[in-house]
C-alpha cells in the first residue's frame, strides 16, 4: 500500500486527501477554510465518519496542525497507514520545473522565487509546503506543478508575438495550467480508446470554475488556452479569458481604473459572474429558466468561445481521436457539452443527446457509435495523479 498525503494549499484554504496511489482509493478527504480569518472552518471525512467544526486558524502552519489533529481524532491513523510521501500541488513551475520534483530548501526557495509569475498562487503553495515539511520532517515532499505537463509546448505555441528581449527578461510566455488534470484525462482517454497515449490525438476541455482546453498529440501537450497566467483563454466563472489587451489601456485612460482595479475586474468580476451576476452554471441555468436575457447571452458566449477553441485545436492537430470534457462543468453540464460542440458534424464531432443527458459520475462516451471522433466525459482526479507522481519521485 502506498498512501500519499496530497495537499493543495490556497491563500485561505488547504484541501487534502490521503490517497492510495495504486488503487486510487482516498481514505480521507478534507478541507481547511478561512485561514487567517477570525474563525476558520474544518471538514474531514474518514473511515470513522465526517466531522465539521470551526476554530481559529491563523496561518498555514496552524492549518496543517489542525489536519494532523483530525487524522488523530477521526482517523485513519497516519501511524498505521504510514504515508510514503506528501504530494504538493504547485501552480507555477516556470521554465525550471518541467517535472515533479523532490522538495529541499533550495527547491522551496526556487518555487517562492517564481511568485512574481503567480502572485496569488505560489506564495500560499510555499506556505503549505513549509508547514507540511515541518509537520512531516521524515517524509519525502514532492512538488507537482500545474505547468509541467505543458513544458512540451512547441515554441510557436508558447511564444507571444511581443518584443523578444522584454519577453525573455520578464519570463513572458505561455505556460499553461491545469496540467495535472489534462495529463490524467488525456491518458484515460487513450485507455478508453484501447490505445497507447503515443498513438492518439485528444482535445481535453477542463471546465471548472477555472477553465482551460488543451490539444494533446501523442501524449504531449502541444497547445493550451491558459497563458502567462490562468486568465487567458476560455470564459470562466469569474475570469474574462481572452480579451483585446488594449481593453486594459482603454479602462486606465477612460475609466481611470488602476492596474489593481483592472486585475480584480478581469480575474474576479468577469466571466459568467460579470455577464450574468452568477459564476455557477447551476445558477446560470436557473436564471435562464426565469427568463434572464443576460444569463442566456452569458451561456452563449461561454459555448461560442469553447467551440472556437475546439475548431482551432482541430486545425492544429490535423487529426482528432477524442474530445473530452472534465471538471465541475464538463462532468455535470449536458447543455454546455451539447451546445459547445454543435455544428461540428463536418469535423466528425457529434454528440448523441441521449448519451449526453445528465451528470456523469463515471467515464462515459457521449458520441454515437461509429463516430469519427469519440466524445467523452472523464471525471478528473488530480489528487490521484499527484499521488502517483509523488510516489514515482519518492521511489526515485
Ligand atoms: P470545479 O472547479 O471543477 O470544482 O467546478 C466547479 C463548477 O462546476 C461550479 O462553479 C459549477 O459551475 C459547475 N458545476 C458543479 N456542479 C454542477 C452541476 N450539477 N451542473 C452544472 N454545473 C455544475
From TrEMBL:
<feature type="site" description="Transition state stabilizer">
    <location>
        <position position="178"/>
    </location>
</feature>
<keyword id="KW-0479">Metal-binding</keyword>
<keyword id="KW-0418">Kinase</keyword>
<keyword id="KW-0067">ATP-binding</keyword>
<dbReference type="GO" id="GO:0006085">
    <property type="term" value="P:acetyl-CoA biosynthetic process"/>
</dbReference>
<dbReference type="InterPro" id="IPR000890">
    <property type="entry name" value="Aliphatic_acid_kin_short-chain"/>
</dbReference>
<feature type="active site" description="Proton donor/acceptor">
    <location>
        <position position="146"/>
    </location>
</feature>
<feature type="binding site">
    <location>
        <position position="382"/>
    </location>
    <ligand>
        <name>Mg(2+)</name>
    </ligand>
</feature>
<feature type="site" description="Transition state stabilizer">
    <location>
        <position position="239"/>
    </location>
</feature>
<dbReference type="InterPro" id="IPR004372">
    <property type="entry name" value="Ac/propionate_kinase"/>
</dbReference>
<feature type="binding site">
    <location>
        <position position="8"/>
    </location>
    <ligand>
        <name>Mg(2+)</name>
    </ligand>
</feature>
<comment type="function">
    <text>Catalyzes the formation of acetyl phosphate from acetate and ATP. Can also catalyze the reverse reaction.</text>
</comment>
<feature type="binding site">
    <location>
        <begin position="206"/>
        <end position="210"/>
    </location>
    <ligand>
        <name>ATP</name>
    </ligand>
</feature>
<feature type="binding site">
    <location>
        <begin position="328"/>
        <end position="332"/>
    </location>
    <ligand>
        <name>ATP</name>
    </ligand>
</feature>
<feature type="binding site">
    <location>
        <begin position="280"/>
        <end position="282"/>
    </location>
    <ligand>
        <name>ATP</name>
    </ligand>
</feature>
<dbReference type="GO" id="GO:0006083">
    <property type="term" value="P:acetate metabolic process"/>
</dbReference>
<comment type="similarity">
    <text>Belongs to the acetokinase family.</text>
</comment>
<dbReference type="InterPro" id="IPR023865">
    <property type="entry name" value="Aliphatic_acid_kinase_CS"/>
</dbReference>
<dbReference type="GO" id="GO:0005524">
    <property type="term" value="F:ATP binding"/>
</dbReference>
<feature type="binding site">
    <location>
        <position position="15"/>
    </location>
    <ligand>
        <name>ATP</name>
    </ligand>
</feature>
<dbReference type="GO" id="GO:0008776">
    <property type="term" value="F:acetate kinase activity"/>
</dbReference>
<dbReference type="Pfam" id="PF00871">
    <property type="entry name" value="Acetate_kinase"/>
</dbReference>
<feature type="binding site">
    <location>
        <position position="89"/>
    </location>
    <ligand>
        <name>substrate</name>
    </ligand>
</feature>
<protein>
    <recommendedName>
        <fullName>Acetate kinase</fullName>
        <ecNumber>2.7.2.1</ecNumber>
    </recommendedName>
</protein>
<keyword id="KW-0808">Transferase</keyword>
<dbReference type="GO" id="GO:0005737">
    <property type="term" value="C:cytoplasm"/>
</dbReference>
<keyword id="KW-0963">Cytoplasm</keyword>
<keyword id="KW-0547">Nucleotide-binding</keyword>
<dbReference type="InterPro" id="IPR043129">
    <property type="entry name" value="ATPase_NBD"/>
</dbReference>
<feature type="compositionally biased region" description="Basic and acidic residues">
    <location>
        <begin position="38"/>
        <end position="53"/>
    </location>
</feature>
<dbReference type="GO" id="GO:0000287">
    <property type="term" value="F:magnesium ion binding"/>
</dbReference>
<comment type="subunit">
    <text>Homodimer.</text>
</comment>
<feature type="region of interest" description="Disordered">
    <location>
        <begin position="38"/>
        <end position="57"/>
    </location>
</feature>
<keyword id="KW-0460">Magnesium</keyword>
<comment type="pathway">
    <text>Metabolic intermediate biosynthesis; acetyl-CoA biosynthesis; acetyl-CoA from acetate: step 1/2.</text>
</comment>
